[in-house]
Each structure stands twice: as structure tokens, then as C-alpha cells.
């Protein structure tokens, strides 16, 4: 996995203009521009997909609105803060990427291409994983408040959204299973390895039952031998009667997509088992 953290003026301005206002100053600026340039403002709304298609080489058909924002002291201050924000995220990634890449390779067993992470103001509370048809680059727009006491969480969340984007078009008729397995892979197992403590009860509450049903097979996918399963159950606070599950030794040779396919093919058998419990 290769991540490039970048600040792009056009995508930053677009989000400042069309997301919720991050301050009274920005709200007033937007109102002023709207009153004087309604036509141009409306046209800029359509630029988002064009920017994401090729951020580095995007040229607006009309740069009036962009130039107005660029020349304001409010934008200068925001841009400075966003640059500092980018450096923080880059620092966290650099500190963790060696371990993160190693563990992801072991868990996913497929390669992820280069991603451009377009950093915007954290006050925007934005995660945009839009896939643009004909896009020349893989992008994610990221503006999320960082937890300074738990900086690895930002890496976990970012990786989760990247993997979800990679599998967005995979097995579209079974998205609950796809999402549950991606949660097991990233929000649970990857997070556990990265932080050194279990995260197996984290994630979407509506998927907990499904994840618990898949969990015994997930351990087989990870290559956990039968005599070690109790150790993992205790760690993750998820219990099941391992004697009722034939050990599917071939699962440890699959990649994540093939494991998803296995769970879809065998879902009637997997999901009907009711002996699982939270310890």
C-alpha cells in the first residue's frame, strides 16, 4: 500500500463552499459570494467529480469563484491549518506504515494500488470515497478530527475506507457480508495487531450478529490452528463450540475476496449456527 497525503486547493475550496460552514466567517464569505455570483457558484458544484478524476491537472472552466476564495485571508488561514493537519497525518502514517503494510499484506493477501489522500479541514468532518468513472487516480478526501491520544485510530479508519472502496463493486448483492468481513479484517484484526489490544467488539452494531457467525471461519482464514482457538476466543471475547465446526484448512490459503466468496456460497450453513455468545 502506498499513500500520498496532499492538499489540493480546488478540492479544499469546493468542500468549504458546499459542506457545512466551519465558522461564521466562512458562512458569511459563502453568503457574500452567493449573492454576487449565483450562476458561477452553481456551476462550481459540478466540479467535484471533475477534480477527483484528476486532481493534479484539474483546470476549471471558470475560475472566478476559486480566485475569490484564494485571495481571502480566511482561506489563507485555513490552508495553513490544513497543511499542518496533513503533516500530522503523514507523521502518524510514517510511524506506523512498516507494521501496517506488513499486517495488511498478511490479512488481505491482495495488493492495494497508490491512493492520493486529499486532506481538507478536519472541522469539515468529511470522508469522500467517491469513485469517478474514468478517474486517472485513486482518491479519498479526508477531513476528520484526529484523536491525539490514539493517533493509530486515524490510520485504522483510513485503511478501512480504502479497503471498502476497493471492494465497493465486489459482490454487490451481498454487501452486508462484504462489509462484515472487511470490518473483521480492518476494524477488528488489523486494529488489534496495530494497537496490541483486541478490537473485536468494534464496528457497526447491525453487523455484530453476522460477524459472530463468520468469526470461527475467520479464525481458520487467519490460519489459527484448532488448539489455539480458545486463546483467540478469550482475547476477542467471542465464544463458540469449536467441536461443532469442521476445520476448513484451505481457508488460510485464500485471499480476502476468495474468503468472501466462500462465506457467500456457504451462508446458509454459517449463519444458521446459534451457539455463539459474547463472553
Explain what this protein looks like in three dimensions.
It is a single chain. This protein is α/β, with parallel strands linked by helices and 279 residues long. Helices cover 55% and strands 8% of the residues. It contains 12 helices and 6 strands. The protein is elongated, with a radius of gyration of 22 Å. 31% of the residues are buried.
In short:
Helix content is 55%, strand content 8%. The chain contains 12 helices and 6 strands.
Features:
55% helix, 279 residues, 12 helices, disordered C terminus, elongated
Rg measurement, Å: 22 Å
Approximate helicity band: 55-70%
What is the number of strand segments? 6
Q: Give the overall pLDDT as a whole number.
A: 93
Q: What is the terminal separation in angstroms? A: 35 Å
Identify the strand order in the major beta sheet: 1-2-4-3
- Stretches where pLDDT is under 50 for at least 5 consecutive residues are 275-279
Q: What multimeric state do the chains show?
A: single chain
